[in-house]
Amino acid sequence: MTAAPRTAMVLAAGLGTRMRPLTDQTPKALVEVGGKPLIDHTLDRLGEAGVETAVVNVHHFADQLVEHLAKRAFPHVLISDERAGLLDSGGGIAHAVDKLGTEPIWVANIDNVWIERGQPALGALAAAWDPAIMDLCILLAARADCYGYDRPEGFLRDDAGRLTHSNNPDPLPPYNNIGFQIIKPELVAGQAGVFSIVPIWKWLSAEGRLFGAVTGADIIHVSDPAGRDHANAVLAAR
Question: Model-level pTM?
Answer without folding.
Answer: 0.94
